[in-house]
Amino acid sequence: MTRLEKRFDDLKTQGRAAFVTFITAGDPNLEDSLAILKGLPEAGADVIELGMPFTDPMADGPAIQHSSQRALAAGQTMLKTLDMVRRFREGDDATPIVLMGYYNPIYHMGVEKFLDAATAAGVDGLIVVDLPPEEDDELCVPAMKAGLNFIRLATPTTDDKRLPAVLANTSGFVYYVSITGITGSASPQARNVAASVQRIKGHTKLPVAVGFGIKTPEQAAEIARDADGAVVGSAIVETVKAELGEDGKLKDGGVARILDFVRGLADGVHGARAQAAE
Amino acid sequence: MRSGPDERGRFGIFGGRFVAETLMPLVLDLDQAYKDAKNDPSFHDEMEALQRDYVGRESPLYYAERLTEHFREQAKEKGGDGGAKIFFKREELNHTGSHKINNCLGQILLAMRMGKKRIIAETGAGQHGVATATVCARFGLPCVVYMGATDIERQKPNVFRMRLLGAEVVPVTSGTGTLKDAMNEALRDWVTNVDSTYYLIGTVAGPHPYPAMVRDFQAIIGEETRRQMMEREGRLPDSVVACIGGGSNAMGLFHPFLDDESVQIFGVEAAGHGIETGEHCASLKGGSPGVLHGNRTYLLQDDDGQIRDGYSISAGLDYPGIGPEHSWLHETGRATYVSATDQEALEAFQLCSRKEGIIPALEPSHALAYVARVAPDLPRDHLMVVNLSGRGDKDIFSVAEHLGVKL
Predict the structure, then answer these.
(1) Whole-prediction pTM value?
(2) Which residues on chain A are in Cβ contact (under 8 Å) with B175?
(3) B residues 281-300 near A, CB within 8 Å?
(4) Which of the listed CATH numbers 3.30.70.2760, 3.40.190.290, 3.40.50.1100, 3.40.30.10 matches domain B59-97+219-402?
(5) CA distance linking residue B84 with residue B371, whole number of Å
(6) What is the mean pLDDT, run by run of 10 residues, along chain B of 407 residues?
């Protein structure tokens, strides 16, 4: 059982949803980013998505685009991203880390070399936005053989006919993209989300996490009532931007304030079902 | 050689469908709709009528007599007696002034068959944007064109033309504000408005079926050239030459000749300030295989797989990738890819203007630059066709600037 599978199992036993956080590796620089990463579990993150920065993030909105640009400008590379995971693992062997990004930096490094380095560093899963099931033999199948979970995005345009193909090689969890759009845009309607989660669950036993457009603890709580996990990315990345000093580093106390914001969201997710039961 | 791509949209290892899940169902729909249209005679009839009456096809195959003479003079000066016979495929005479309209007509008819209500496009030099805005005006569909802020600055006449035609031109400032960023932004729009919107891609790139479909709509260039040369000279050309950014005008010219072994094929990439300077957009000469914008192809990228910006005097060639079929033709050796610098293109631009009374766009000026390099050393009976893919009116301001002339 991977860390990811164990984490979702444990949370199911506890009867609460997972809080999935996204940050971009190396944003705004390696040192600050590592400090945020290390603080996330204590701030309530159950699963961490770590973005691999890319120059051309086609499915992302301005918030995550800019975070990628900040990281790249500060000299972030794939090897540095993997090294962040390794250093995180020195102090935390339980919190799952999923690398999220686009295929080209992985392809350029070489799939085999990347998978070796990722598993050695302690990565648990991959989300690669521009690899649909039609391209499974590129990375998905080799990643599964290497013992990594390959998490697929399902979207409102993924109809019932297509869902089985999307779910076929998915493991760990299913990431339901609640809107047709880019990251950080319009917020999802809780009612639509509940129906969609049910639709996906009709096809799989995997946990379903929901993301795209969740910005506040209240929205996170609403999603967490129906889904097995709530993913927040752009909103966290925006707080990184808000804490930027003029030298491109975080202001004094910035890491703590970013983690406070994360804690607020975590409380929303973790209290969601208790609240609903009252 | 002409049978590709396979069912998965691959030309060898190149091509494919590397897109986000939100777009995948739509890309599959498009594939089906295009297959249906291809097999529907009424689709072809409609295309043919519009090509004739609206675009002004067929475009002439023109014997560039004075340019040919010029190269023969040069040959003589060097003590030779060669000098290839040069022909222009006059795509710049099409409505809107370039080959781009060929593809736009095909795709907008397809978009309407699919019931789409809104058209988006990306543009670099603005030629594809103008052609898209034109067909949208012709068929009464709203049109949004994404264009890099840098390109808007250097292609003002085309921006104004698009607006005259009723299109909304959206400046893109993300990334470096050039063609690749405009394409990213168009993809973001598409992901957001997937139900209503048709993405009219301007070149032989993107997820399958775009590279094959755009090629098919452009292949009329090569088909006409083939027939016209047979009629005129009684045989096929010995070589065909075209400039390459994404590579749609080149693919259109090349494709009908792929199986004719006697025909040499030359694609000319933009070498900018020179390949060795790193400031160029020659993806094949100066790049390596990667995955971007829905397909695997040669890309300009750094050691970490991050996309590098292309540079060229010509905004239309300034793309860090190239159509996947070109990558395949490069690796199989069927086509030969060469490059020409800004300076060489500027010289060819002026040479063509003075010798033939045709002001070419900066894009095909790169192809002309290659012709100028090799034509004097080729035998007199060598028949060489260069695709004059666009006219140069849009470029006179940036050319003047480079020549130090104040308008």
Answers:
(1) 0.96
(2) 55-56, 69
(3) 288, 290-294, 296, 299
(4) 3.40.50.1100
(5) 9
(6) 94 97 93 97 98 98 98 96 97 97 98 97 92 98 95 87 98 86 92 93 97 98 98 98 97 98 98 95 96 98 95 88 98 98 98 98 97 98 98 91 91
